[in-house]
Write a structure and sequence with these properties.
By secondary structure, the protein is an alpha+beta fold. It has 3 domains: about 60 residues, Winged helix-like DNA-binding domain superfamily/Winged helix DNA-binding domain (Arc Repressor Mutant, subunit A, Orthogonal Bundle), CATH 1.10.10; about 60 residues, no CATH class; about 70 residues, Ferrous iron transport protein A (FeoA) (SH3 type barrels, Roll), CATH 2.30.30.90. A hairpin with a 4-residue loop joins strand 5 and strand 6. Helix 1 packs across helix 2, helix 1 packs across helix 4 and helix 4 packs across helix 5. It is elongated.
């Protein structure tokens, strides 16, 4: 991709993540980076005008940001695929997602994104940058991921991601045990939505149910 090495992709991805948190210092970028990097690794990115360096401050250029956005998108889509669909343990999520992000071809990425229903957030609640398929709302692959309110009583699915109206709602749902990877069954949808998962039964408002997306099981 763009003839840059994996370590350079990791650095650009880390700059993106640091900027999401309003951080631009070298130490912050290192904290987000999955690999160690040194001066020799930064120089080519400066030369190619992908980053701007001012002492210990690192900034993405427009060109660097465009590449970083694609890398972050692939990584976060891979996280959903790994944790919710391929059923890998949460502890393996980051390692496998890192491997996938460097090898995911654009057409495969779009197919996976479409299959997942164009998710807007990864399992950790971080936003997934939009792709061309998201903007066009491509549906050719067949949408297996639906919002929880689309389940009829008796139908089940595995939570793939949550698009919360606020972080407080996301934390509350997680505190109840309703998080990505959990299998839920719709027990009733009128007059209120009631779901069952593990040993818990929960009544949810329509506004909340619509923010929970599940991989619907075949009957």
């Amino acid at each position: 991709m763009n003839d840059i090495s994996e370590i350079h992709e990791e650095i650009l991805e880390s700059l993106w993540k640091a900027e999401e948190n309003g951080q631009h210092a070298m130490m912050n970028v290192r904290a987000f980076c999955a690999v160690d990097f040194g001066e020799r690794d930064l120089s080519p990115l400066v030369t190619k005008r992908m980053i701007i360096r001012d002492g210990e401050t690192l900034l993405l250029t427009e060109a660097g940001r465009a590449i970083a956005e694609k890398i972050v998108r692939r990584h976060r889509i891979a996280e959903i695929l790994v944790t919710s669909i391929l059923k890998h343990k949460a502890g393996e999520k980051e390692r496998i997602a890192c491997e996938v992000e460097h090898n995911l071809q654009p057409e495969v990425e779009e197919a996976i994104c479409t299959l997942l229903g164009h998710p807007e957030f990864c399992p950790d609640g971080k936003p997934i940058p939009r792709g061309a398929c998201c903007r066009k709302r491509v549906r050719e692959v067949g949408q297996a991921v639906v919002s929880l309110d689309k389940l009829a009583p008796g139908e089940s699915g595995k939570v793939t991601y949550i698009k919360p109206a606020s972080h407080a709602i996301l934390e509350q749902l997680i505190s109840f045990g309703l998080s990505p990877g959990v299998i839920v069954t719709m027990t009733q949808n009128k007059p209120v939505f009631c779901v069952k998962f593990e040993e818990t039964e929960l009544a949810l408002d329509r506004e909340v149910v619509r923010t929970i997306f599940v991989w619907k099981f075949d009957e």
